[in-house]
Here is the input.
Amino acid sequence: AKAKSRGSISVYEPEMDAQIRDRRVLHQDLSLAIRNGELSLHYQPQAVARHTVAESEVIGFEALARWLHPVRGFVPPGDFIPIAEESGLIVEMGEWILREACREAASWPKPLQIAVNLSPAQFMHGDVVGLVHSILIETGLAPGRLELEITEGVLIEDFDRGLALLRRLKALGVRVSMDDFGSGYSSLSYLQAFPFDKIKIDRAFVMHLGRNPQSASIVRAVVGLGHGLGMSIVAEGVETQEQLGFLADEDCDAVQGYFIGKPAPIGQYSALVGRTNAP
Ligand code: C2E
Ligand code: CA
Ligand code: CA
Ligand code: CA
Here is the structure.
C-alpha cells in the first residue's frame, strides 16, 4: 500500500529520505505482524541482589517484545516500538503484549512476578486501567504478581492524569515501577509526587560501576532515596561480578542483567518457573 501523498510528493520520490521510507515500510509490515504471529516475548530474570549469582534467587521476569520479520529477521524493540507509538499501533500491540505476558505467567507453577513495559502512548492515551483489569480477570493472574514499568517523564506530560492513573492501577492491586530512572528528566519531587513501588536504576549508571566513582555515588544515593520513600530498587544491566557485589553491598533489592540471565524464550527458563524438577 502507498502511504499518504500530498500534491506531487509521493513515497517514491528519490529525494525522500531513505530512513523515512524505511520507517513507512516497517510500519506497513508492523500492522500485519500481530495478525501473522510474528511478535513474541522474551523473558529476562530479575533476582534478589546477593554477592553471588547462585545466591541471587530469581523472583520474577521482565517481558520484552520481539519481532521476527519474515525478511529482515529480528527487528529490535528500540526500532519498532517507537514506530508503533507514533502510528497508534501500540494500542493493539501493547494489548497483545500484556495479555500474552499475563497468560504466560499465570501458567507457571511458581507464583513469580511478571513485569510488563507500558509505552507512553499506551499509558497516557489508552484505557490502560480497563485493559489491565480485564486481562487480569481473563488470565486469572493474581494482581499482586503483575508489575507495570513506566518510563520516567511520561507522567509529567499531564501530571493530574498521570497521578490518577497510577492510583487507579494500584487500586487494582498491581505494582508500578519507574523504568530507566536517571536517564531522563527525573527530579526528586517527581519521585515524591508519584506512588511508585519500585525504581529501576538505568543501565547507564550500573555500567560504569567499578570504573567511575560518580556512578557509585549516584547508585548509592538512589538506593538511599528510594528506600527512604518506601520504594524498592532494581539495578538494570548488571553484567559483571563486580557490579553484582557492589549492588549487594549497597543494599540494592534486586538485579537484572546478562550476568543473571539474558532475555530468552520462556522455555529456556522452565526450571526457574517451576516446570521441571531441576534445582
Ligand atoms: P528496557 O525496558 O529498559 O529493557 C531493558 C533492555 O536492556 C532490554 O533491551 C534488555 O535486553 C537489555 N538488557 C538487559 N540486560 C542487559 C545487560 O546486562 N546489558 C545490556 N547491554 N543490555 C541489557 P531490549 O529487549 O532491546 O528492549 C529495549 C527497550 O525497548 C526496552 O528497554 C523498552 O523500553 C522497549 N521495549 C521492549 N519490549 C517492550 C514492550 O513489550 N513494550 C514496550 N512498550 N516497550 C518495550
Ligand atoms: Ca523495562
Ligand atoms: Ca529499563
Ligand atoms: Ca532502557
User: Anything to note?
Assistant: Residues 1-9 have pLDDT under 50 and may be disordered. Strands lie at 39-48, 58-69, 73-75, 113-118, 146-151, 175-181, 198-201, 232-235, 254-256. Residues 180 surround calcium ion (ligand 4) (CB under 6 Å). Residues 198 and 231 are 5 Å apart (CA to CA).
